[in-house]
Design a protein that fits this description.
The complex is a heterodimer of chains A (about 550) and B (about 300). Chain A is mainly alpha-helical and about 550 residues long. Chain A is built from 22 helices and seven strands. In chain A, the strands form two sheets. In chain A, strands 2-1-3-4 form a four-stranded parallel sheet. Chain B is about 55% helix and about 5% strand. Classes of the chains: A mainly alpha (about 550), B mainly alpha (about 300).
Chain lengths: ~550, ~300
């Protein structure tokens, strides 16, 4: 944490009344705590990206290439042809304002340019000026403005204050999705070498080592070893975790944070315990050791470059299908893009649970199934022995992650699992869950320390809903299925609602799962003591 | 003069409208749809025992059509609208349902449609029974001595609300452009002149119909006895028609092209093709193994090449 942040009593005093009508006056405040550092040029070079250089957003000179304007306009023209979403969304907005107070950044900051409609106007005004007759002829009167360096700087500021969560798109009467605009804005900025390190560095790591964290294969094997040891300590059972094994039935891919960060780790233990208990014929891979995809936050091309490893590795190892761990944007990529960008996966078979025989018809082309679909199916068919009382020390709520909710519709499976493995489950208020869920505030690659104030502001709506169930039902853990959530919500909650933890769905499964030959459990997978009654239950 | 306002301008307006909208639709149609990106607003079709919500998360084109109809005819997404409020002293955010925009938006659009259909009587001889029935229903409330249609009142109210909210609510004022005021004021003027023609300044309807039919036959003739107000009304309509394809009002056609609404969420079931897909630079496994082989062997990971 690089900056002192105001108290939460101060930060929540949000003024939603715009001070003046300055929609088209570029805002170049770049207040500390509200933006992220530019990319390290070495990382850009590694990925072969254009115009790598040292530059600083707070300085006047961004060291843009001399023909930057031409590059941006050409890039826009190209994207208008390539993406119907872009052209239609730029043409049809009526500025009704239904999206305005749906954005977590607007709710948390009151900055009028964080209204999704305004964020899009930043680009739409330039579109009008160079690509529409009215804008060319009438200029400002037709809502058009010249593309200047200041406009470009403002794009950088606001397109990295959008987490591509798609909540505005749910409320828009035409389905205008600011995520598409932000994606295009970022692609355009990348053409002139403007981007942030927290996206470029993970992308470059992932390209080289197979995962965002840059974990090399031997360290990957080590960390799996630690997980095996830890499971042995908790359950007395030594689980087997095959790595890079050819001929396995299933390739398991999960975000790298699961095996390297907390509280993701406990969910990871849950996967391994579950697979062991089932005797699943699976393997993990050090080469395809990342489910997430920070390329999505850079460009469609980078997304494709990183995602490529998953199918390639499935083919090399000769598996039948792919199982994916808990994650958010990973599932946007898997569900909406992977088959298109790197398919067809005709060398794989339609996923079929070897335990229940269920064929996952909904994944018959992509051939990749979400772990919560897999586990819900197991529980539904009574294939797991569960003792939900081992989660009695938790009062649980569930946070829908943006992408599984709004780019997929995976809403019931995790809830079904949670209700079977926990006795105390409470939903947050209706306007903050399912398709109306709020982003944690740090998605789409902006979870940086230097951007902390903005993350806390963006996290306010989620935290405030947690506060509600915390006070009403005593909720003490937020479960979620997104690696970025698991990394960021702890920070957000520590600030807004201290005393509430963050965990994963399969962490709850891990606690409840009765394994053959396990020793009596006295702690949960975090090493915290179980509630007395639960401990006795285990000894029977 | 009357020929200019009664014939030439309307012809120009209609021509610009048709060509302009055609241009828009062609431009939208020519843009590719590289990815299938529906915004899902309900449970997807997954396991057979999990209740899916096909209206909010259509698994196939049949339900896409239903979803689009709900959106276009009933403004489904606006129905969801909420208002958020912050109570700093209580450290609380509150969301409440806010259906005013939905209500007045729907009233405006439906009134406009009914009024347009009613106007067809000027272009048809004999007048089809459907239009007559609609007229009778719309005029069921005879408020003033002259028949004042229900939709006339409703559209004036709705447009007034849509205009006032841009002026009164600071956030909406912030995002309102000159074009937004222009559009609503233009339509409001058309409605006001139209209502005036009915109530205060009667015009010779028979003559108007003669004019309309002759324009439709491409054999325009302007009969006498038509009031100046009528020509003002028609001129405003012509301006609206000409302005339409260059304005935000193209949402009328654009919504059909919105990829977050008009695509099925069958992404993992059916492969979608990107027409401009191109090969990219990837990091293949053998390069990865070449770099890390020593470490991989040290850690006991299987390798392809010893």
């Amino acid at each position: 944490m690089t900056e002192e942040i105001a108290s939460r009593e101060e930060l929540i005093k949000i003024d939603y009344k715009p001070r003046k009508l300055d929609l088209f006056e570029p805002n170049l405040a770049f207040r500390k705590g509200t933006w992220s550092y530019p990319a390290n040029p070495k990382r850009m070079e590694h990925l072969g990206l254009p115009f790598p250089r040292e530059w600083n957003p707070t300085e006047a000179d961004w060291k843009l290439p001399p023909n930057w304007k031409e590059i941006i306009l050409k890039g826009m023209e190209e994207r208008l042809k390539r993406y119907r979403s872009l052209r239609v969304f730029l043409d049809i907005c009526v500025r009704c304002g239904a999206c305005a107070d749906k954005c977590h950044f607007y709710i948390g900051s009151g900055d009028p340019k964080n209204m999704p409609v305004a964020r899009t106007e930043l680009m739409r005004s330039v579109y009008r000026r160079y690509f529409t007759t009215g804008g060319k002829l009438l200029g400002r009167a037709a809502g058009a403005r010249d593309l200047t360096e200041d406009v470009l700087k403002e794009w950088f500021y606001y397109y990295y204050q959008c987490t591509e969560c798609r909540r505005c798109s749910v409320f828009c009467p035409y389905g205008i999705d600011t995520c598409e605009i932000t994606m295009m804005g970022r692609e355009l900025l990348n053409l002139v070498g403007i981007n942030i390190n927290w996206i470029i560095e993970p992308a470059s790591n992932c390209f080289r080592t197979g995962n965002h964290l840059g974990i090399q294969p031997h360290a990957f094997a080590d960390t799996i070893g630690f997980a095996i040891d830890e499971i042995k300590e908790i359950t007395g059972i030594t689980v087997d975790v095959p790595l890079n094994r050819k001929g396995a039935e299933i390739l398991f891919v999960t975000p790298s944070a699961d095996y390297f960060a907390q509280p993701h780790w406990f969910t990871f233990l849950g996967y391994l315990m579950l697979f062991h208990e089932l005797g699943l014929d699976y393997t993990m891979s050090s080469y395809a050791s990342e489910g997430g995809n920070f390329g999505l936050f850079h460009s469609a091309e980078m997304m494709k470059r990183l995602n490529n490893k998953i199918y390639a590795e499935a083919k090399r190892l000769g598996v039948k299908w792919i199982l994916g761990g808990e994650c958010g944007h990973m599932w946007r990529v898997i569900h909406q893009y992977m088959d298109t960008i790197n398919g067809p996966a005709d060398f794989l078979e339609v996923p079929k649970s070897p335990i229940t025989g269920t064929v996952f018809e909904n994944a018959k082309s992509t051939k990749m199934t979400h772990i919560s679909e897999f586990t819900a199916d197991l529980i539904y068919h009574n294939k797991l022995k569960l003792d939900p009382s081992r989660n009695d020390h938790w009062v649980v709520t569930f946070h829908d992650s943006c992408n599984p909710a709004r780019a997929m519709g995976l809403l019931e499976e995790p809830r079904y699992i949670l209700k079977k493995v926990c006795n105390n489950f409470y939903e947050m208020p209706e306007n903050t869950i399912r398709e109306k869920t709020f982003c944690c505030g740090s998605g789409a690659g902006i979870g940086t320390d230097e951007n902390l104030e903005m993350r806390l502001r963006g996290g306010l709506p989620r935290a405030n809903a947690v506060k509600y169930v915390h006070e009403k039902h005593g909720v003490n853990i937020v479960t979620c299925m997104c690696a970025i959530d698991k990394a960021n919500i702890p920070t957000v909650l520590k600030y807004w609602v201290p005393g509430v933890e963050v965990g994963g769905v399969h962490e709850m499964v891990a606690n409840a799962l009765i394994m053959k030959g396990e020793k009596p459990r006295v702690t949960d997978v975090r090493g915290q003591p179980l509630k007395a009654k639960a401990a006795e239950g285990g000894q029977k | 003069m009357n020929t200019l306002f009664g014939v030439i301008l309307p012809y120009c307006g209609i021509a610009i409208f048709i060509l302009g909208m055609l241009y828009r639709v062609i431009m939208w149609g020519r843009s590719a749809v590289p990815f299938r990106i529906p915004t899902t607003c309900g449970q997807e079709k997954s396991l057979p025992w999990i209740k899916a919500n096909p209206l909010e998360n259509p698994p196939n084109n049949r339900f896409v059509i239903v979803r689009m109809l709900l959106e276009i005819l009933l403004f489904r997404s606006l129905w969801r609208n909420t208002r958020s409020e912050v109570k700093p002293e209580k450290q609380k955010l509150i969301y409440s349902s806010n259906k005013f925009l939905w209500l007045f938006g729907l009233l405006f659009h439906w009134s406009l449609l009914i009024i347009l259909v009613r106007h067809l009587r000027l272009f048809m001889e004999p007048v089809p029974w459907a239009i007559k029935t609609l007229e009778d229903l719309d005029g069921a409330f005879d408020i003033v001595i002259n028949t004042l249609f229900l939709t006339d009142i409703v559209i004036l109210l709705a447009l007034t609300y849509l205009l006032l909210r841009r002026i009164v609510f600071p956030q909406i004022r912030y995002i309102s452009l000159p074009a937004d005021y222009f559009a609503v004021i233009l339509i409001l003027s058309i409605a006001v002149t139209g209502v005036c023609l009915r109530i205060f300044y009667h015009t010779d309807v028979v003559a108007v119909k003669e004019l309309a039919m002759s324009v439709l036959r491409f054999d325009p003739e302007v009969p006498g006895g038509i009031s100046w107000l009528f020509f003002l009304h028609v001129t405003l309509v012509s301006v609206l028609l000409a302005y339409f394809p260059f304005s935000k009002m193209v949402h009328m056609g654009g919504i059909f092209f919105s990829p977050t609404r008009n695509l099925a969420n069958n992404n993992r079931m059916k492969r979608h093709i990107n027409p401009w897909d191109y090969p990219v630079k990837v990091h293949p496994y053998h390069e990865y193994e070449d770099e890390f082989r020593k470490f991989m062997k040290g850690a006991g990971l299987p390798v392809e090449k010893e």
